[in-house]
Design goal:
Blueprint (H helix, E strand, L loop, with lengths): L2 H27 L12 H37 L14 H6 L7 H13 L2
C-alpha cells in the first residue's frame, strides 16, 4: 500500500475513533440509571428498561468497533494494514474505503459468510 493511502486511512480511522470516544464521553456524562420511584406504573418502568437495554447494545457495538479501529491503527504502525488475515493478499482500496476496519479481502469475507450460513 502506498504511503499516501496509509496516511489517508490513518486519518479516517483516527477520526472514527475520536468520534466514538466522544460519543462514549457524552453517554457517560449523562445520568443513565433507573430509580423505581421515578415511574408511577409498571409500563413506564418497562419502557425505560427497554430503552436502557437498547443503549447498552449500542455501547457494546461501539466498543467492538473501537477495538477494530485500534487493531487497524496498530496494523498501520506495523506496516501490515490492508493485508487479508486469512490469505495474506492485499485488501482492495475500494473495500478499505467502504470499511476501513476490514480484516479480510472480499473473497475470504464471502467464504466466511457462506460458512456461517451453512452452520446455522
Amino acid at each position: 500500500m502506498r504511503k499516501r493511502d496509509q496516511e489517508k486511512f490513518k486519518k479516517i480511522l483516527e477520526e472514527q475513533r475520536d468520534q466514538l470516544l466522544g460519543n462514549v464521553e457524552k453517554a457517560l456524562s449523562g445520568d443513565v440509571h433507573l430509580d423505581p420511584d421515578d415511574f408511577p406504573d409498571e409500563v413506564d418502568a418497562a419502557s425505560a428498561e427497554v430503552g436502557l437495554a437498547f443503549i447498552g447494545r449500542l455501547r457494546e457495538r461501539e466498543r467492538g468497533l473501537l477495538n477494530k479501529i485500534t487493531k487497524a491503527l496498530d496494523k498501520l504502525g506495523e506496516g501490515i494494514y490492508g493485508e487479508c488475515e486469512t490469505c495474506g493478499e492485499p485488501i482492495s482500496i475500494k473495500r478499505l474505503e467502504a470499511r476501513p476496519v476490514a480484516q479480510l479481502c472480499i473473497d475470504c469475507k464471502g467464504e466466511q459468510e457462506r460458512m456461517e450460513r451453512q452452520n446455522r
